[in-house]
Amino acid sequence: MNLLVTGGTGFLGSTLVPLLAAGGHRLRLLQRSAAPEAERLGAEVVRASLEDADADAIRAALDGVEAVLHLAGQVSFDPEEPERLYELHVQGTRRLLEACVAAGVKRVVLASSSGTTAVFEEERIGTEADPYPIAVVGDWPYYLSKIYQEKAALRIHRDTGLPLVVLNPSLLLGPGDARLSSTDVVFKFMERRIPAMASGGLSFVDVRDAARAFAAALVRGRPGERYLLGGANMTFRDFFGRLERLTGVAAPRVALPSRLNVAGARLLERLAGWRGAEPPIDPHSVEMGERFWYCDSSKAVAELGFQARDPQDTLFETVRWLEEHVRGKARPATLAELAPR
C-alpha cells in the first residue's frame, strides 16, 4: 500500500518503518524533523507539523495515500503543559483525520496508550470494555489528552465512516530507544536512581511485537475497535527483581506506604527546586507507580495475530542495548515515568 506514517522517527516508528519497508509498502513520513534512516529505506519525507494547522501541507502529504499510521505524539507529565498536549494529541489528530476523510483514505491506525483504559487503583487486569479512567488519571494531562484523542478519533469514525483502528500498547521496551522516551525506567534503574520500591504494577510490551501488531492492523483490524497490546503484567517488585538479576544492580529495598512515597517525592522535588537541581524522581512518576497498569491482550491475539515474546528476552535486550548505546554516554533529557506511552 501507499502509506503515510506520522511519528516515524520515534521508538515505535523507527521499529515499524523498516518492517513496513520490508513488507513492500511505499512509505511517506510526515515529520517535523529530518528522517535520514527512513530515507535510506526509500521513504519520502514531508516536513510539516500537525500543530501548525497547515492544511495544505497535510493535504499534500495525503496525496495518493491509501492508509495512515498515526504514531505522532509527545510524552510529558509536566502539569504546566495540558494545553500543548491537547493541541497536539486532540486537535492535531482531528485535523489529520478530517483531511483523511476528504482524501478518501481507506484505513487509519491510531497509536494510543493502554493508559487510556487499563489503569486502576486496585490490582486488576483491564480490557477494552473498561470505561475511560478519567477519575484515576485526572491529574495527569498526558493521559487525559490521549483519552480525548481517542474519543475525537472514534467520533469521526462514527460520523464519517472513516475506517479507523486504535491500538493501545503498554510500556514499550526493547532495543533502539535512542531518545529514552520509554525505556528510561530501565535506564534509571541501572543508574541507581530509583530510591524506593513502588507498590503497584506495570504492563510492558516489546516494541518489535507491538510494531508487528500495527502492521497487521492495516488489514486485520476492525474499524471502530480498540486493541490492547501488553506482553507481561508484573508488580514493580518483580520487575525490578528481574532487572537486578540481569544487571547486578540492587533493586530498591525500601518499600514505603503509598502516601509516604508520594509525599517524599514532593519533598525531594521542593528541595531540588531550592538548589536549582533536578529532583531524583518526580511525584507524578511515584503516583503512577502506586497504580496497576495490567491489561489483557487476548483481543489483539485473536484478531491481529499479536504474539508477545518471553518478557525476560525483552528485558535482556533492553538492558543490553542501553549498556551498548546509552549508559555512560548520555543521560535522559527528562525524568523517568513508570507508565505506558
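Second entry:
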Amino acid sequence: MGTDLNAPLGQNRKVSPGRKRAPRVSAARLAAACAVIAVLGGSLWSLLAPRGPFKTPQPPQQQAAQADGPAAGSAAGGATDNPGDKPGIRRERGLSGAEIEETRNPDGSIVRKFTPKARDGAGPLILDASRIGQDPRSAAFPNDDLIENTAFGKLPIVGPDGLRPVEQYARPWSGARGTRVAIVVGGLGLSQTGTQRAIRDLPGEITLAFASTGNSLPRWMQEARREGHEILLQVPLEPFDDADGDPGARTLRVDAGTEKNLDELHRAMAQITNYTGIMNYMGGRFLSDADAVEPVMRDIADRGLLFLDDGSSAQSLSGTVAGALDMPHAFADIQLDGTLSRDAILRKLDELERVARRNGAAIGVASAFDESVAAIADWSQEASRRGIEIVGVAALADAPSKQ
C-alpha cells in the first residue's frame, strides 16, 4: 500500500492538498504577548481597585464599612428605613450616629475609633435610670437594681454596686455651701384635690411626703417626680395619746413586737417607689422607745434610705439610733403651719430663713393645706432672690460620720 511500516510514526507523511501546516510560535513572540497582557491587566486593576491612584478617595466611614463587609456598612451608615416600619419612624442600627476615625498602623493593621455624633434631637433617646441624682425625663421610673420583689411588693434596697435610693432619687443641688433650706410638705395622697394642688403649685425644689395610707399613690408619685420633686414616705408611728388622733390600723406600735412592726413597715414601703427616705407621722411614743425604734431604723438604714424626724417629740431617740447605725438622718427645725393662716406661716418661714442663715441650713415641715401650699409657693420665689438655695431634704441628711 506504499506505506512503510518500519518508518517512525509521523515521518515522511505527505501533506494533503488544501491543508496548511500550522505556523510555529517563537519564544520571542510569546514573551511579547505576555508583556502586553501584563500591561493591560495592570492598567485595568489601577482603574478598578478601591485604593487605586485614579479612584476618588472615600471618607473613613465608607472605608470602614467596606472593610467590614455589607453588614458593617449598613451599621456605620446610620439610620436606615425598614419597609415594615410605620411612616415617620426611623430604625437605628447598633452603630448609628457614630463618627468613625480610622488609623492605619505601620504594620498594615487598621484601628477604628467610634465616637457619638452630635444629636439633633430628632432621633431616639435612651434614658439611664441608674445615674445618680434626678433626671426629670426618667425620674418617674425606678431603678430596677434598687428594688427587691417581696410578698408585700417592691421594696427599696441597696444596689449591687453600693448605690442607695437616697442617692439615686435625691434632687441635685448646686453644691455651694451657702444658705440652704429644705421644706417638706407632707400628707400627700390623703386628699385628691390637696395633692393635686401641691404638685401643681409648689416649685420642684420643695420635697413632698406621701402618706403610706393615702390613695392613688403610684399615680401621684409619678406626677411629683416628673415635676422635679424629691419625695419621702410618711409611716404612721404610735403617738403618746391615741385620743389626740389615732393614726390608724397600719400604725407601728411599741407593744406590737419587732416582727409585726417590720411587716407593717414593709407593707407601707411597698406602696410607692423612688423615695429617698422615711418620715414619721406622729410617733412620739414609738420614737422614745429604744427597743421598738432600733430594729425599724436598722431596716431603713440597711435599705439605703434616710430618716427624717419631724421634730414633734423632744423625747425622740431617732438621732441617737441613727448615729449608732451611721445612717442618713435629719431633724426638722420648725413646724411651719402649727397655726393655719397665711400670715402665721409666712412668719414661720422667715424664722426658718434666720435659722438657716445662722446655722448654714435648716429644715421646715408643713402639711398640704391650701394656706400652707400658697404661702410656701410665694415665699420660695422671694427666697431665691435673697440668696437662699432651696434643696431636697436628702442634701441636708448626712450620716453622722460624714458631718
